[in-house]
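Translate structure to sequence.
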């Protein structure tokens, strides 16, 4: 299959007029100029499919659902908006419930329908629990973590841990040794405790500037994140979790290692109303999800396509840099090597971006 594009984001640059050859879903050639008989003509700019490394649900459903059809509905709802690689994130539950949820998701990973499983809990700080049930939070238990990772059969790709918890450094070291990424988050840690987490092997920061101390004093957690180039911070770019001006300042400072995420709950791609997250009641009004009992934010109704457009429209990010934030950097964060950019040997997960309308459409590259 030959795909002709007027322009494309290639090697972190914008190039004019090229055609892409696709064989069995893989890019086999990139050639400048015009092909005499392309199968598909892309009038917008060709960009790689989005990768979301932190997504709980969408389309009215959750990845924690007991039905395969509901899980597929989450995947489909985000794929329709350009997210061609999605991580199934699970909130804090009892260990037995988490085991059941992991077991249901493992086949989706082995069929390449999700890029992995993210355990956003239960090893989180009570002081920064966010939309996680406080009574289910616990300190890291190495034997328990080994059991969960083994149950995942290669599917568990990331675990969020508050680094100040007893047993956290040892657990982070073990998790990282299993080629599972560790994200620091839902934490009340200071600079030294954040450093201990990074030194133990953590490489990602769960929704930076949310569910953590936001102060930027010299001894703060956030100051360490800004200073340490080993860490890739996630950003929820919806204007609610992060004011756009704050996001703009962060991107100016460390944008080369940031990652756009949705942190989407079930109402993403669905309607306002009453929902739950884990066991906690949630009210979604005007597209904003908040816990019913204390009005704290409870995930988002965001898609990566919306975050991508917000980065360009509200934060002044270039198209090339927005691609890095939404495709290349997420792939790098998870050490995924078959997607995240347009290059020979990569999956042909391709989108067309219309700069005039900020419209994003999937390019059907299947033969």
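Result:
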């Amino acid at each position: 299959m030959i795909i002709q594009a007027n322009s494309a984001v290639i090697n972190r640059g914008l190039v004019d007029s090229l055609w892409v050859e696709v064989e069995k879903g893989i890019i086999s050639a990139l050639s400048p100029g015009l092909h005499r008989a392309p199968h598909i003509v892309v009038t917008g700019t060709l960009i790689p499919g989005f990768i979301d490394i932190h997504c709980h649900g969408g389309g009215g459903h959750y990845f924690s659902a007991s039905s395969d059809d509901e899980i597929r509905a989450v995947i489909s709802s985000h794929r329709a908006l350009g997210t061609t690689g999605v991580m199934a994130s699970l909130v804090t539950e009892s260990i037995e419930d988490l085991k059941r949820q992991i077991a249901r998701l493992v086949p989706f990973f082995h069929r390449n329908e999700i890029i992995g499983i993210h355990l956003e809990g239960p090893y989180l700080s009570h002081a920064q629990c966010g939309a996680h049930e406080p009574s289910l939070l616990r300190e890291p238990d190495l034997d328990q973590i080994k059991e969960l990772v083994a149950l995942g059969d290669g599917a568990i790709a990331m675990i969020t841990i508050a680094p100040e918890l007893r047993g956290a450094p040892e657990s982070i070291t073990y998790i990282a040794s299993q080629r599972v990424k560790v994200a620091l988050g839902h934490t009340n840690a200071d600079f030294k405790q954040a450093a201990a987490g990074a030194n133990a092997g953590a490489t990602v920061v769960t929704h930076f500037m949310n569910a953590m101390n936001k102060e930027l004093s010299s001894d703060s957690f956030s100051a360490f994140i800004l200073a340490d180039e080993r860490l890739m911070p996630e950003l929820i770019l919806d204007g609610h979790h992060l004011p756009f001006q704050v996001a703009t300042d962060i991107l100016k400072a460390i944008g080369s290692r940031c990652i756009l995420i949705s942190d989407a709950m079930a109402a993403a791609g669905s309607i306002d109303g009453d929902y739950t997250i884990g066991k906690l009641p949630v009210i979604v009004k005007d597209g904003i999800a908040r816990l019913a009992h204390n009005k704290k934010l409870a995930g988002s109704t965001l898609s990566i396509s919306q975050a991508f457009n917000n980065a360009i429209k509200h934060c002044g990010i270039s198209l090339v840099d927005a691609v890095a934030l939404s495709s290349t950097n997420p792939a790098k964060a998870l050490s995924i090597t078959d997607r995240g950019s347009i290059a020979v040997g990569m999956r042909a997960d391709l989108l067309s971006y219309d700069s005039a309308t900020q419209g994003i459409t999937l390019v059907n590259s299947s033969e």
